[in-house]
Amino acid sequence: MAAADLAIAPMLVPLSTAVLVLVLGFSRRLQVAVSVTGGVAYAVAVALLFQQVAAAGPLVYVVSGWPAPFGIALVADALSAFMLGLAAIVALPALVASVQWVDPVGQRLSYHALFHFMLLGISGSFLTGDLFNLFVWFEVMLMASYVLVVFYSGAEHTRAALQYVVLNLVGSAVMLLAIGGLYAVTGTLNMADMARRLAEPAAYGVDPAPVVGLSALLFAVFALKAGIVPFHFWVPPAYRAAPAPVAAMLAGVVKKVGVYAIIRLSFTVFAGTALPAGLAGFPGDSFLDFYAPVLLAMAAASVLLGGAVAVAQDEVDGLLAYSSIGQVGFIVLPLAIAAAVPDLRPLAMTAALVYVVTHGVAKALLFLASGAIFEAVGSVRFADLGGLTERAPLLSATFLVGGLSLVGVPPLLGFLGKLFVFDAAARTGVVAPAVALVGAILTIAYVTRAWNRGFWGPPLAGEVDVRTGDLALLVALAAVVIVLGLGAEGLVRAAEAGSAAALDRGAYISAVLGGGST
Amino acid sequence: MTEVALALVLGTLFAIGTFLLLRRDVVRVVWGVTILSQSANVYLVTMGGLAGAVPVLGHNGGDHGLVTDPLVQALVLTAIVIGFGTTAFALVLTYRVYEEQGTIDLDELGEGA
C-alpha cells in the first residue's frame, strides 16, 4: 500500500460502514456495533492521515491512475487533514448519542447508513481536488442530510425539511452554473490547474473578467451551506427539526464544509488572479480585494443578527441555532481580514481555523447536551427546565462548560478561538474589532440569559432522570473542550500548518500537478 | 444561429423555473426546482461548445475533424442522475408534507407554526 492510498481511507471507511449497516438490519446489536466501530475506525484513519500529512507533506491520490489535471485527484494537505480532524472529533460522540436517542426502528431502517453516507460526503468534500467532484460530494452529503433533517417526519419537521431541500436544490443548480462557466472560461476543472491558469491568465489564454462573477456565484452557494447572513434563514428551522446528534453534526461539521470551500476556492484557487481593470469601487488588484468588503459585511451581519436574535430565544435549540449563525460570523471575520491585509493573512487564517474547531466542538457539546435535556425533561423550553442545576447538576455542568467555551472563558477551548480572532482584529482598523467586541458581548448576554432562565432559579417539581450513558458521553466531550483548551499548542500548530497550506498556492499546485503517484 | 436559439431557450427555461419556484403550491415549487436544474444541465452542455462532430470516436469512419468536448456531456450525465434522485426525494417529501399537514399550500403551511 502506497502512502497516497491513505488519502482515501477517510472515504473508504464510512462507505464500507454504510453498506455494512444496511446489510446488517436484521440484528440491531450487530448493526450498532458495526456502526460505532466504523466511527472509531474513521477517527483512526483520520489520525493516521493527519500524522502522515504532518510528517511528509500533502498526499495526492489519483483516481483510476488518470494523471491530474485530466483525472480526478484527491488531495490531502494540511488544511484538509485539519478539517477531517474536526469531523472525526464531532462524528464519534454524535454517533454514540444517536444509538441512545434515535428510535430503534428508525435506526434499524436507515439512520446509521445515512449518518455514514453523510460522513462520506463530508470527507469527500474536504479531500477532492476537482471542482465538479466537489459538487458531487456536496450532493452526497446533502442527500443524506435531507433525510436526517426530516427523520422524525412530524408536521414541523417536514415543513423545515421542505425549506431546507428546496433551498439547497436551488443552490446546487447555481453551483452547476458556476462550475460550467468556470470550465468554459478556464478549460479545466482541476482546482490546482485552475489556480495555475488563473495566476497567469495571459499565458493560458484565459479571460479573468467572467471569473469574477462566476466565483461570486460559487461563493454565494458556499455561503448558503455555511449559513452566513444573508443566506442564514434555513438554519434555525432545520436545526430545530433535526434529531440532536444530527444538529450537532450539521452545526459542528456540515456548516464548516461551506467555510472550507470558501477558504479553498477563494484563497487557494482564485487568490492569485489579478482583478480586471475597471471594476469600479474595489481598491487593489487581487481577487481577494474584491472579496474582502463582501466577507466583512457578511461577517458583521452574521455576528450581530445571530447574536441579537439568540438573546431573544425562549428554547435551547433555537438559541443554539441562532448562536451558530453568529459564531460563523466569527469565522468569516478573520477571513475578511485575511483577504484585506496581505501581511496579516497567515495569522488571520490561523484564527479562522482555530475558531472553526473551537466552535465545532463546543456547539456539538451544546447540541448533545440539549438532546440529553430533552431526553430527561421532555422539553427544551427554558420555562420547562426551571432550576435544572438542582435537578440534574452534572448535566447542567456540561452545558455550562459548552456555554462558557462559546463565551471564551479561559482555560476552555473557546478562549483560544476568541484570543486569535481578537488578535487578528485588533491589528486592523476600527470596524473588525468593534464587530468582534459587540459579538462577544452578545454571546455573553445570551449564554448568561439561558443559564439564568433554564438552569438557575427555584427548581420545578418532578423527577429528572438522566441516563448514565448520556452523562458519560457529555462529560467526555466536556473533558475534550477543557483538555484541548489546556493543551492548546497542538491545535494551534495544526491550524498554522492548515493556514500555510491554504495560502501556499505554489505548494498545492506542485503537489497535484508536479508528479503525484498512484 | 444555434447559439441564439439556445440562449433564448435557456432564458425561457430559467424564467419558467423561477416563476414556478415562487408559487404557493409545493408541487409547483418542486417542478420549478426541477426545471431550474434541468436548464442548468442544458447550459452545461452548451459550455463545451456547439461546433464539432459527435464525440464518439469511429462514429463517422476515419474523418473526425473537430470533435465536441465530451467532458461536459459526462458532467451532465452525472448531474442528471443526481437531479433524478433529488427530485424523487422532493416529491416524496411533498407527499409527506400533505399527509402531516393536510395541505400543500405554502401560505397555510406557514400559519401552522
Can you describe this structure?
The complex is a heterodimer of chains A (518) and B (113). With 518 residues, chain A is mainly α. In chain A, 77% of the residues lie in helices and 2% in strands. Chain A has helices at residues 9-23, 28-56, 78-101, 104-127, 131-149, 155-186, 191-199, 201-204, 208-226, 235-241, 244-269, 287-311, 316-340, 345-377, 382-385, 388-391, 393-407, 413-426, 431-455, 468-486, 488-503, 505-513, and strands at 59-62, 73-76. Chain A is globular, with a radius of gyration of 22 Å. With 113 residues, chain B is mainly α. Chain B has a single domain, classed as Helix Hairpins (Orthogonal Bundle), CATH 1.10.287. In chain B, 69% of the residues lie in helices and 0% in strands. Chain B contains 4 helices and no strands. The longest helix of chain B is centred in the last third of the chain and has 31 residues, at 71-101. Chain A binds chain B through residues 132, 135-136, 139, 143, 146-147, 150, 153-156, 158-159, 161-162, 165-166, 169-170, 172-174, 176-177, 179-181, 183-184, 189, and chain B through 21, 26, 29-30, 33, 36-37, 39-41, 43-44, 47-48, 71-72, 75, 78-79, 82, 85-86, 89-90, 93-94, 96-97, 100-101, 109, 112-113.
How is the secondary structure organized here?
The complex is a heterodimer of chains A (518) and B (113).
Chain A: H1 9-23, H2 28-56, E1 59-62, E2 73-76, H3 78-101, H4 104-127, H5 131-149, H6 155-186, H7 191-199, H8 201-204, H9 208-226, H10 235-241, H11 244-269, H12 287-311, H13 316-340, H14 345-377, H15 382-385, H16 388-391, H17 393-407, H18 413-426, H19 431-455, H20 468-486, H21 488-503, H22 505-513
Antiparallel strand pairs in A: 1-2
Helix pairs in contact in A: 1-2, 1-4, 2-3, 2-4, 3-4, 3-11, 3-14, 3-20, 3-21, 4-5, 4-11, 5-6, 5-11, 6-9, 6-10, 7-22, 9-11, 10-11, 10-13, 11-13, 11-14, 12-13, 12-19, 13-14, 13-18, 13-19, 14-17, 14-18, 14-20, 14-21, 17-18, 17-19, 17-20, 18-19, 18-20, 20-21
Chain B: H1 2-21, H2 26-46, H3 71-101, H4 106-111
